[in-house]
Design brief:
The chain is α+β, with helices and mostly antiparallel strands. Helix 1 packs antiparallel against helix 13, helix 3 crosses helix 7 and helix 8 packs across helix 9. About 9% of the residues have low confidence.
Length: 594
């Protein structure tokens, strides 16, 4: 038990400094800051909350203004907001699914409650009457200081419902136990130690906010203005979280805690301790190790079971692994709010486009980390936005997750044509290694199969000045010149006066998405490249007219799912100017050059 608690504590510490918690840090920092002079008079002395101080600034929640000088009361708002966050996060991670199911409430109700609380507290900071209304539930608590920190505690409760940390094996084990209602003493101890580890860095950040506010005179003199700024920031955060705007920022940041997380949460001791929270089914999967650079026999692939709904299959029909014998299958465990999962999806989608015709079947198993991720329409919408076109199984009861004894988001399991698990890898990375093993299994299944070039890999005969692969993705695009890209909305663009070598630009109306660009009215694309041949992955219905150095060379009909099209094919490499005229609705994914 002591070892399990230590693993939970260290896992929480790592989680609290990961990129996934960045959206809540500004609010935690500002929440710890006092805004006016606080004091405590003798018992029974009249007090006023939200009044004007001598500088014309309104006091912060619960500030006490008295006629006579009194000893200062230490601001405990940092402790209150962190305590509220950790309490609500721990409670609802363990019991949220059970409570929601028992009451018959929507799966994403807790997320919406958290968003509403964040907006209300933001309004309270801007409008003092709203704040006094929010503090009423705490008004009957006799301790004056607890009274005073009521709104900070409520803010923490709201943040806890919106707190979506990067999940490693520890949080995965807690989430699975909570979802299945298996709340033994070991799970509770792991949860509490994880919550304590998470709380410590957040508390230090909140205390830093208090320290800055107390020591910097500008904060005290402009308390009212800072309250308004903080309130607006909280409402803006709620809006950004509601529309998943923060995801783009998190995706752009490297996962700098992944190595430490694996050392702490996925070492031999941790695996042994956490495996005690699972049953003994499919233990043969434990014969294999994460990310070994070779194919091994890890036992028969467990079934994909307990699925509430299928996406991206004809008529929503399920995919049966037994019927996939003869094919190579890649199973990807993911969940849509997991930033690490989002960063891995472009690689998986590229494999799907490249190898599906060669016998590869990719199945995404969406195993939710939080209750709001169980909503089928939420998953379907996010899958479309992230460009996921292969079958997705909604594993809301985490049955398939348990069948595979999985511990990570994301996780990839590679199954050969005979139905045996041959390889798995946890977390981000190892993309080239995984693709090599996919190609090996495809060749073993069908020695005569003709495989396309590796995705994202340059031909070894190419020289270093050859134009590199270029993704038409607002997250991964390189070499773009021209008008700034507008994410996920149609915009009219204009070609610049010049397009340098290895650069591209847009003209006409385009929608720049995470996975592909969609053509609108009068859409054109120009690319100055150096290569012998040019390829582009296209989908949709319509045509693409190809011009090289101003001369029309071909018109390509496009129909159906993403397919690689050869735009230019010459005998020698050279520098040239490519222009494409694209009909509305066509989706363009990525350029490759040979």
């Amino acid at each position: 038990m002591v070892t399990l608690i230590l693993i939970g504590l260290l896992g929480g510490l790592i989680t609290a400094v990961s990129p996934c918690i960045l959206p809540v840090l500004p609010v935690v920092f500002l929440a710890g800051a006092p805004g006016g002079q606080t004091g405590a008079g003798p018992p029974g002395e009249a007090r006023s909350t939200g009044a004007q101080n001598g500088d014309g600034a309104t006091a912060l929640p619960g500030d006490v203004l008295v006629a006579d000088p009194a000893p200062a009361v230490r601001n405990r708002r940092p402790y209150a907001v962190v305590a509220g966050l950790v309490l609500s996060f721990s409670f609802f991670t363990l019991l949220g699914v059970t409570i929601i199911s028992a009451l018959g409430l929507p799966d994403d109700i807790l997320r919406y409650v958290g968003l509403v609380m964040l907006v209300l507290i933001g309004l309270g900071l801007v409008f003092p009457p709203v704040e006094r209304l929010l503090e009423k539930p705490f008004a009957r608590i006799p301790q004056r200081q607890v009274n005073k920190e009521g709104s900070a505690f409520a803010l923490g409760l709201g943040l806890g419902l919106l707190y979506v940390p990067c999940a490693g094996p520890v949080l995965a084990a807690i989430t699975v136990a909570g979802a299945r209602g298996e709340l033994g003493l070991d799970v509770v101890a792991l949860t509490l130690s994880f919550a304590l580890g998470t709380a410590l860095p957040l508390l230090l950040f909140a205390l830093a906010g208090r320290r800055v506010a107390e020591r910097v005179g500008a904060f005290r003199k402009r308390a009212r203005k800072l309250r308004i700024v903080a309130g607006c920031l909280m409402m803006a955060l709620a809006l950004a979280l509601a529309f998943n705007v923060t995801d783009a920022i998190q995706r752009a940041l490297p996962d700098y805690t992944s190595a430490a997380q694996k050392k702490i949460e996925d070492n031999d001791v941790a695996r042994q301790e956490l495996s005690g929270l699972y049953d003994n089914s499919n233990k043969e999967l434990s014969r294999c190790e994460d990310g070994v650079d070779e194919l091994r026999s890890c036992g028969q692939a467990p079934p994909i079971a307990g699925i509430s709904k299928w996406l991206n299959t004809p008529g929503g029909r399920p995919v049966d692994l037994k019927q996939e014998h003869g094919k190579v299958v890649l199973i990807d465990f993911w969940t849509y709010s997991c930033i690490n999962c989002q960063r891995s999806l472009p690689y998986i989608e590229a494999w799907n486009r490249a190898y599906k015709s060669a016998g590869l079947e990719i199945i995404g198993v969406h195993s939710p980390e939080f209750a709001f991720e169980k909503n089928a329409s939420n998953v379907a919408g996010q899958a479309r936005e992230l460009g996921v076109t292969y079958p997705v199984a909604l594993d809301n009861k985490l049955t398939t997750w348990n069948n595979y004894r999985n511990r990570f988001w994301p996780a990839k399991y590679l199954i050969d044509a005979k139905g045996t698990v041959r390889y798995f890898t946890f977390g981000e990375g190892r993309y080239a290694q995984t693709e090599d093993l996919i190609r090996t299994l495809l060749k073993q299944a069908d020695p005569d199969v003709q495989l396309p070039p590796k995705t994202g890999q340059k031909d070894p005969q190419l020289t270093k000045d050859r134009t590199p692969e270029t993704y038409l993705s607002n997250h991964r695009i390189s070499g773009y010149v021209g008008d700034p890209l507008l994410d996920n909305k149609p915009k009219a663009y204009r070609f610049p006066t010049a397009i340098p070598v290895n650069s591209l630009s847009l003209d006409g109306t385009w929608t720049a998405g995470y996975q592909y660009f969609t053509a609108g009215e009068n859409a054109r694309l120009a690319f100055t490249y150096r290569a012998k041949n040019v390829n582009l992955v296209l989908a949709g219905e319509g045509t693409v007219t190809v011009l090289v150095d101003g001369k029309t060379v071909k018109t390509i009909p496009v129909a159906g799912t993403p397919t690689l099209h050869r735009l230019v094919d010459e005998s020698t490499a050279r520098t040239a100017h490519l222009e494409l005229k694209v009909t509305p609705g066509i989706q363009a994914y990525s350029f490759t050059f040979g």
